[in-house]
Each structure stands twice: as C-alpha cells, then as structure tokens.
C-alpha cells in the first residue's frame, strides 16, 4: 500500500504540472482581438457621420471603409476568433486525455507484469543470493566482504588474485597472490601470477621482485611459460637481446601447438630480431651489451678501454641518428653505469627522456629502468 500511495502521489503531481497550463485560456489574446475590432467599428461609424455632414468626400469615405474592413479581417473577426477558441479547447481536451491515459495505462501494465510487492534488496541481501544470479561486481564485492571477515582464507585469496589481475587492479592482485602463497604455499602458478602483477604494476618493467617471483616459478615448474616469457623480457631490458631471442626460440620449440603463449612469444621474437638486425646494419660497430662489458674486464687495460670506448661511441652515434630506440638508450645508460661514469649515465638518461618523451610509455619505462640502476632525471 505504501508503494501505491507514493506512486499515486507522484503521478498526480506530474499530471497536474501538465494539465494546469492546458486549462488556462488565452484570455489576453482574445481580449486584445475584441478590443481592436471595437475600435475599427467606431472608426466606421465615425466615417459615416463625417460623410453625412459633408466633411469627407464619398469616394474617400469608401476607400477608408475598405482599409478598415481589411484590418477587421486581419484581426480575425468574431467568427475566426470563435473558431480558433474551439480548436484550442479541442487541443486542450486531447492533451488532458493523453496525460491521464499515460499513468492509467502504465499502472495497468505494471499491475499485470510487474512485481509491486517485491521488497528492495540491500547490498548484503544481493550478496547472499545465488551466485549464478549475481553480476561480476557483486561477486567481487562478496569475495572482498568474505575476506575482510576471514583474512586467513587462503582459498579466497587464491580465487580473487587472478580476477584482480584480469581487471587491471595490479597492486591488489599482487597483495592477493602474496596472501594466497603465505596461507596455502607457493606454486608455480601463484609465483608467476605475482611476477606478472608486479611487472604490470611497474608499467611493464620486470623489477627485481618480479624477476625473483618468476625464478621461483621455474624452480617449482621448469616449463612454466609465463615465467619464461617475462624472464626473457627482463633480458631485453638488461641489454641482452641475443639471449632473450634464444630463450624465446627455445620456448617456441617446446610449446604445444595449441598453447596461448605461442602468439605473444612469436610477436616478441619477431620484434626483437628485427630490432637487433637493424641495430647491426645501422653501424659497423656492435652495441655494447652486458656480456661485452664483462668480457672486456679480462682484457689488458689499454685494449679494454679502447674496446669499450669504441662500442659506447658507436652506440651513442647511432642514438643520435635514431633517438627513438628505448632499448638503445637503456644499453647506453647501463654501459656508463658499469664503467663507473655516473655523470655520463645521467646525461644519457636526460637525453633519452627528451628523445622518447618523459610522459610516453617508452619514456616512463626508461625512467623506471634508470631507477633500478640508482639514477634519476635532472630537473
């Protein structure tokens, strides 16, 4: 009864808001037209009197009467005014019927097919209903509410973690994976999921924590594809593109034909192979890698310095010609760090950010990589 009372009250208010303007007659218009016609009639009578007294010539009187008659016709006269008023009344009646028909018809339909007696449900009641009848947001809210009351439910964290990951809530996914691992033990899937969440939270940069998680996943399952893929990506970020290519090639050999990882591995392999090929053809001097720097450490000082200076100078020149190479800037900056030339490493960071754009995806990844080396951009 409460529902129908408020529904009737709201319907009455809405109907009156429309009906009241329709009920008002255009009095000002009718009064104005009648007044004009009376004035014109007085003018006709005055002309007749002037003509009888000889104050105006008959032909001028007829011409004036004709003009006044035109004005009376334009004003509408008595019969057009009555016709207009009748049409206005008919329009207002039709509008009133339409306004009243809408709530009557809608009420009738709702009474037949609606559920006016169904009580409203609070969030808690919606969460308590059958999961098959709930939306994704309701299911997540239900899981979060359950874990808030039962934070030691490892299975709940294990279920929620990959959902957070798919929804792009990476920090929450990392927390959920850590809780699931703490409560239910480490598995290859949980460790790889944690590494992926940390990597995505870092805008695609495989941090030290993420790399540790991927390595743990491979300890538990040496064929874990997600861990292999991201560890190869970490090799690229460290300037070891050749090793990354070998790792991806080995993955393609081992992956089954129906594996969902074949496409991302093939794409990463093609992109990095073309980049390495372009790098080697752009200049006759190879770009310095970590292996080059480590090998140079065993050489005589003079030879070592000559080799390193040649490689770094070649890479620097190549970046001046093609500054849109984020991995090249990473290798150059890391080379300077390994050589202990912090000032030049920071200069390379500033130049790279200026070339890539500090707010672009490549620029942010470059800055995050520099942070892992202990560098930060100057103002």
UniProtKB/TrEMBL annotation:
The keyword ATP-binding does not apply. It is found in: Cell envelope. Residues 259-290 are annotated as: Disordered. Residues 277-290 have a biased composition (Low complexity). Keywords: Cytochrome c-type biogenesis, Repeat, TPR repeat. NCBIfam families: cytochro_ccmI. This is C-type cytochrome biogenesis protein CcmI. It comes from Manganibacter manganicus. The lineage of its organism: Bacteria, Pseudomonadati, Pseudomonadota, Alphaproteobacteria, Hyphomicrobiales.
């Amino acid at each position: 009864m409460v529902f129908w009372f408020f529904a009737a009250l709201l319907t009455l208010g809405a109907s009156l808001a429309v009906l009241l303007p329709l009920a008002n007659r255009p009095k000002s218009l009718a009064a104005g037209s009648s007044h004009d016609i009376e004035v014109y009639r007085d003018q006709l009578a005055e002309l007749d009197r002037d003509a009888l007294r000889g104050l105006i010539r008959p032909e001028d009187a007829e011409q004036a009467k004709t003009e006044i008659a035109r004005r009376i016709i334009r004003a509408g006269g008595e019969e057009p005014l009555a016709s207009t008023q009748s049409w206005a009344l008919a329009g207002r009646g039709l509008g009133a019927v339409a306004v009243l028909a809408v709530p009557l018809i809608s009420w009738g339909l709702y009474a037949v097919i609606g559920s006016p007696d169904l009580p409203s449900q609070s969030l808690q009641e919606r969460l308590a209903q059958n999961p098959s009848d709930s939306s994704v947001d309701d299911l997540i809210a239900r899981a979060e509410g359950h874990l808030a009351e039962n934070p030691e439910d490892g299975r709940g964290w294990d279920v929620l973690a990959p959902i957070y990951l798919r929804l792009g809530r990476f920090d929450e996914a990392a927390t959920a994976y850590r809780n699931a691992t703490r409560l239910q033990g480490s598995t290859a899937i949980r460790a790889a999921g944690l590494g992926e969440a940390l990597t995505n939270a870092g805008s695609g940069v495989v941090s030290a924590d993420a790399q540790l998680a991927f390595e743990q996943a491979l300890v538990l399952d040496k064929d874990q594809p997600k861990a292999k893929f991201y560890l190869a990506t970490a090799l690229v970020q460290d300037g070891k593109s050749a090793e990354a290519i070998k790792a991806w090639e080995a993955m393609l050999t081992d992956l089954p034909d129906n594996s969902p990882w074949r496409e991302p591995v093939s794409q990463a392999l093609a992109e990095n192979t073309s980049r390495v090929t372009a790098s080697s053809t752009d200049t006759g001097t190879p770009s310095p890698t970590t292996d080059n720097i480590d090998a140079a450490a065993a050489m005589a000082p003079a030879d070592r310095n000559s080799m390193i200076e040649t490689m770094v100078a070649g890479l620097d020149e190549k970046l001046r010609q093609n500054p849109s190479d984020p991995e090249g800037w990473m290798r150059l900056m890391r080379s300077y760090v390994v050589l202990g030339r912090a000032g030049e490493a920071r200069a390379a960071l500033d130049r790279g950010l200026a070339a890539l754009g500090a707010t672009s995806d490549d620029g942010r990844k470059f800055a995050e990589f520099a942070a892992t080396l202990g560098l930060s951009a100057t103002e």
